[in-house]
Structure formats: C-alpha cells, structure tokens
Amino acid sequence: MKIRTILFGTAAVVMVAGVGLVVWAERHPALAPVDPPDPDTLDSALVEQGEMLAAAGYCSSCHTTSSAEPYAGGRPMETPFGIVYATNISPDPETGIGTWSEEAFKRAMHEGIRDDGAYLYPAFPYDHFTQITDEDISALYAYFMAQEPIRAETPANELGFPFNIRTLLAGWNLLYFTPGRFAPDPERGEEWNRGAYLVEALGHCGACHTPRNAFGARETARKFEGARVDGWYATGIGPGSPSPLQWSEWAMVNYLIDGWDRDHGIAAGPMTPVVNNLAHLPEDDIYDMAEYLLSFQEDDGRDHEAILALAEEREFESQTIPEADLLDDPALRRGQERFAGSCADCHRRVADTTPLALVSSVTGPDPINLINVTIDGIRPPDGVPDKSMPRFTTIGDEELRDLVAFIRHHFTDLPEWEDIDEAIATARQTFGRRSD
Fold first, then answer.
1. Which of 121, 138, 384, 390 has CA 20 to 30 A from 174's CA?
2. Global pTM value
3. 168 occurs within a structural domain
4. 355-389 tens-digit pLDDT
5. Which of these, 69, 63, 61, lies nearest to 277 by C-alpha position?
6. By residue range, what is the domain housing residue 57?
C-alpha cells in the first residue's frame, strides 16, 4: 500500500508539473488586431529610416520570392528539421501583418512570439533581432506598413513530429535564447559599436556564418567560423576565414558594398542579395561593419607576397596544355582537360578575374560553393554587373567531380576534398538539375 501511495503521488506530481509547464509555455496572450494604418498618415522620415534599416537587415532576402511581390513571403528555408516558409510581411490584413499592432510587431522581433501568442521558429532570427532598439523597431514597422498590401498565403511548414509542435520552442528559448537590447562595449569606440550593432542585431550575420548544434542553436564559442546553410557554405569571416589573403578594411568595404574584391573574389548565392541591400546603407555604416568584422581576424603572419606568387604561378597561360604538363592521374587529367576547354578562357592570367588560388570557394573546407557556381553560374551583385559566370547545365556528375578535384589540386596546396560526391548530390537537389 505504501509503494502504491508513493507511485500515485509521484504520478500526480509529474502530471501537475507537466500541466504547469504547458501553461507556462503557452502564457503569451494574443494581441488585439488593429485596422491597417493609412500610409498617408505615417511619418515619412520614419518610413525612410525604416527602409534603410530593412536594407541593413536584408529583410527582402527571405521575405520576397518574386520582385513583383515584395515582402509577400513564401520562400522555402531548408533546415535540418524540415522546411520553414518565410511569412508574408506586407500589410495585407488577411495574409500579411496588416492587422498587427506595433506592440505585436515589437514582440515578434524582440521575443519571437506572433500576434496570436504562438512561437515563431528561430529560422526567423529573433535571437538577433531582440537586440534592435525600440526606436529602430518603430521605424521598421512604419516602413512595412507603408508598403503595398499583397494577398499571398504562406505555405504550411513542412516539419515532421515533434518539430511541428510550436509549444516545444519554449524549451528551445529557455536553453538558447537570451532576450535583450544591444549593449555597447564601453571599451570600444563609437564606430566599432555601430558596426557591432549592424552586424549582430540588424544584419544577423552570425545566423549564417556561425555553426549550429544538433538543436539548431548557434555555437557561440565558434562565432563566425562558417557553416553549411541552405545548400551553400557561409564562409568563416573571423579566425576561420579560408581566404588566403587577410582582409584589409578596403577589401572588406569593397566586398560589402559591391560584392567583389580583386583579392577575394565575388559574392554569389545567398550573399548576392545581402550586398545588394547593403549598397543602400550610408558608406560610414559599411566602414563600421568592416571595423567590427575585422576585429575578429587574427594576424597569423602569413606571407602575402608568397601567396600572390603562388597564385600567379598556378594561373593558366592559355586553353592549350602542353603534353609534358598533362597530369598522370586519370581523374585529375580529365578535370584538367575540361578546365582548359571550358574555364581557362576566363580564368587565366590575362583575364580580369580574381585568381582561383585566392578564392574561398576553392580554398575553403567545403566544395559546395564551387560546385554550385559551376552548375548554376553567377548572376553578379548590382555593383559589378560585368562579373557574371555562365551555367554549365549539361555537365555530368563524374565530369563535375573531376573538374572540382582538379581545381582544388591545381590552384591550392591544400588536402583534397573528401565529400565532393555528397556536395554534388546536395547541389543537384538545390538546383533541380538532372545528373548523368
């Protein structure tokens, strides 16, 4: 009887605790809807400020699928747990955020809670946006409410059990989310702190460039070390940068504004819309971002002259390979011949391109970016419209593998990639191309 009483009591305690946890997790109330504000009544200066802030946060990169329907959402975001679709944040009252009050908008940005009290998935980077000042949130709200309402239903997320249970995000937040506004570092200057605010809060750069753990949370101890995101590799931008040449302030500013620097190459994939948005920021903001990002770079004493000499040495002279220079390894030789026939005309010494020996997609730890641009080409950022690269849509998997292996072998002295086949399979899935 005593044992039964103990078991009954334990079960009762567990049940009460469970109910209490559910009640605690679902404690956020729904906020009352409002009538969409008349755009003519909005402060034009506040709207203009919000437009610049939206560019700094490149909101359109996720929330716009078609340029004809800005901020209408619908873009699929691949996560290890399934697909999350970006929502409609136009002021449409039925499918967008037209009936959201400013309080509801602030709560979503600062706490990751929707207007109806449900949790937002951290694919929406509220763990960064929580740091945005209240004043900047007000400007963003005014800007979005001034946009054209677009009726567009957001597709249902494709998440399996238990990841489709939003209430469980209360536990994720408890473990990995620290709400709070940006706090300047008093030991740093004004420019560094402005750059930190733009990078950490609005720009949420770490959302892509920082590795994540098994639960999808950023590994803060490995900040800016690089990570595979959405079928691309967001390269390390701190000590983990794979760039052979260290970044200078001028190179970083060039890259952030135009998307290209002679010593580092061109922005591609998801980074292209980022730099297109950053181009709308005041130049001082870009310099501040560069100062902050470069503060994570460690001077390892690398010999820049030797690196440039190696890059010069490895450049192709022409599309013709002398018989004596042909490689013995059959796979590398096939890649060499394919490079000479299809790539060398642009990627050779006389061309106005960054030497491949200096490009992070060649020198980095993951071959996915090189494979992606080979398959799908490069539509360059707006600042460098002449830096395009054509698609190689007919190249087969084996031919692609040989080409990528050769490029790594010839243009670097780094170890060969061991996961080329996996990366090719990922790229084929990303771009929906038929492989041989």
1. 138
2. 0.89
3. yes
4. 999 999 999 999 999 999 999 999 999 999 999 99
5. 61
6. 39-176
